[in-house]
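Could you help me review a protein record that somebody else here produced? This is what I was given.
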Amino acid sequence: MASAATYKDRQLLAVIGDEDSVTGLLLAGIGHVTEGADAQRNFLVVDAKTETSQIEQAFQNFTQERKDIAVLLINQHIAERIRHSVDTFADPFPAVLEIPSKDHLYDPEKDSVLKRVRRLFGE
């Protein structure tokens, strides 16, 4: 069981997604920018010009470096670009959830969380 110190300061959602997904979530109120000279945002808008290394860096930042992120939402088609990192991330916090996008269908066979559940049940 995770100690209270592990999750008590984790209060934010983060998102790595296409413009429509990120815009919708920002309009819902999840946007946050940290204070200080090295201000960090809790979202990354990915388009056709975004390098895979930028996505990987944002994923590592949200999952390893930032201690205020409780849930990371990532469009499934973007998670495919960094599938190895998504599939090997096993920490309880932040929870990494793959979400569909307007232009890409959700495929439950690719979802890392559902893959883990299937392994637990021996499928």
